[in-house]
Amino acid sequence: MVPNDETLFDKVVNLSKRRGFVFQSAEIYGGFRSTYDYGPIGVLLLRAVKDQWWRSMVQLRHDVVGLDASILSPPAIWEASGHLANFTDPLVDCRDCGARHRQDRLDNPEVCPACGTKGELTEARQFNLMFKTHAGPVVESAAEVYLRPETAQGMFVNFANVVNTSRKRPPFGIAQVGKSFRNEITPGNFVFRTREFEQMEMEYFVPPDQSEEWFRYWCEARRDWYLDLGIPSDRLRLRDHGADELSHYSAATADVEFLFPWGWDELEGIANRTDFDLKQHAEASGNRLEYNDPGSGERYVPHVIEPAAGATRTAMAFLMAAYDEEEVRGETRTVLRLDHRLAPYKVAVLPLSKKDELIEPSRVVLGALQPHWMCDYDQTQAIGRRYRRQDEIGTPFCVTIDFDTLEDRAVTVRERDSMDQERVAIDDLVDHLSGRLAH
Ligand code: GAP
After folding, report:
1. Model confidence over 2-18: pLDDT tens digits?
2. 108: DSSP letter
């Protein structure tokens, strides 16, 4: 067991680099601060997190549809949503060392946490977190556009389009997974707070008198999603926001928090956004954004419950929760005990030796498994080391092809957590693994 402190943090960061989960962006140029690239293993983990979210939020429901809205957006959206005026953090500078801090995150508002000097922090300035750029060749204010700081507004501005084309009626939701951008003053803790990140958000439109009931429903549903995918219950909690923490649009918010090595911190916010956004956009655009109930003839502006999660942040929480070390025959084995659904590779195919007679049947086995699962293939090094490499990236099953395979047309299947091995006929392999990987 690794203690849940900086030791775990450092180990996960090192593993991420060493095994190709996450690389510092633009590393060959010295690194571009606070942006990260997801490597061959990381992209699979991140994709699995997003797929699992989509599966539970869209695929397995009858009342939620998807959307993929643009990242570039006109100022009108952010004017109406309140982000131009309110999406700010209070920024202070230290006159002594020049460090910048978010005032609301300081332990002591008098003391610079970088150099320890007292009384040298400037008055707070409100700093808008949105990235602004220009569309087209002319850099002028008429061409200003913003990179979205949340995916949510895409769902609000498309509310009427979705209602008209999907025939959904409240309560129903619109879900989206995609990149968002925030010019964070203090990015940090690896991929926890970055300037470019991915969100998984759903806007759930409900009759106004049902908003409290749906708020509680989504708080519990979202907490259960993390538990079901393997976050231990003693490292996950729901925390209601105090009135002073609420965003400008929110009547109530609860965070799903994970016990990171630095303490409890947010994975997801579930907010009751009321009718704030639809009303704002209706007023600013001059379009009616209401639901017209064909049965009762009633017209109303739905209220919105929003579960808003971070994909990149959540992937890191799953990594931290899964990381384990144990002693095996006098050696330390690192193993990622990831839920099968999140494992980057589900199966690794490993010929026992590089001899041609084993390579060919190994490729045949690989070809039979690939249509079903993401598989790794590795013919280098001793088999024990190859098992360890797969344990480190959380591969649930290793399939080894040895010289007996040529006689009995069977392979050895080794399970990651128990390291138990069993002999399985090649003809039964897909069924065997399907049974063991099923959920
Ligand atoms: N639409 C509501 C909204 O965006 P939020 O709490 O600001 O709410 C939702 O963001 C989630 O997005 C957060 O819980 C977090 O997981 C993720 N997130 C926000 N800012 C982030 C950042 N700078 N880096 C990584 N993830 C971030």
Report:
1. 899 999 999 999 999 99
2. S
Which residue shows structure tokens 């976050």? Answer: 231
Beta 410-415 vs 125-128: how paired, if at all?
A: unpaired
Model confidence at 248, pLDDT cuts 50, 70, 90, reads confident
Task: Give the distance (Å) from ligand 1 centre to CA of residue 198.
Answer: 8
Amino acid (1-letter code) at residue 156: F
The SS3 call for residue 168 is: coil
Q: With H, G, I as helix, E, B as strand and everything else as coil, classify residue 62.
A: coil
3-state secondary structure of 348: strand
CB distance 423 to 411 below 8 Å: yes
Q: How many Å apart are CA 19 and CA 5, to the nearest integer?
A: 21
The single-letter code of the amino acid at 261 is: P
Predicted local confidence at residue 88, as pLDDT: 93
Spell out the domains of the chain, with CATH numbers in brackets.
5-72+149-319 (3.30.930.10), 345-437 (3.40.50.800)
- Between CA 178 and CA 268 the distance in angstroms is 15
Percent of the chain at pLDDT above 70? 100
Per-residue pLDDT band for 322 (boundaries 50, 70, 90) equals very high
Q: Ligand 1 centre from 321 Cα, in Å?
A: 20
Report d(CA 360, CA 296) in Å as an integer.
68
Give yes or no for residue 148 CB within 6 A of ligand 1. no
Cα 143 to Cα 78, 81, 87, 133, 353, distances in angstroms: 15, 19, 21, 8, 61
Ligand 1 atom with the smallest distance to the CA of 150 is: 4
Whether 155 lines ligand 1, by a CB cut-off of 6 Å, is no
CA 250 to centroid of ligand 1, rounded, Å: 15
Question: Sheet of 252-260: strands edge to edge?
Answer: 64-66, 172-181, 196-206, 303-310, 263-274, 252-260, 236-240
Confidence band of 249 (pLDDT split at 50, 70, 90): confident
Residue-level length of the chain:
439
Q: The tokens 């591969």 sit on which residue?
A: 395
E strands in 210-274 = 236-240, 252-260, 263-274
End-to-end C-alpha distance for the chain, whole angstroms: 27
pLDDT confidence of 247, banded at 50, 70, 90? confident
Helices (H), 100-199: 152-157, 159-166
Q: What is the mean pLDDT of residues 158-162?
A: 98
- Residue 369 pLDDT class (50, 70, 90 cuts): very high
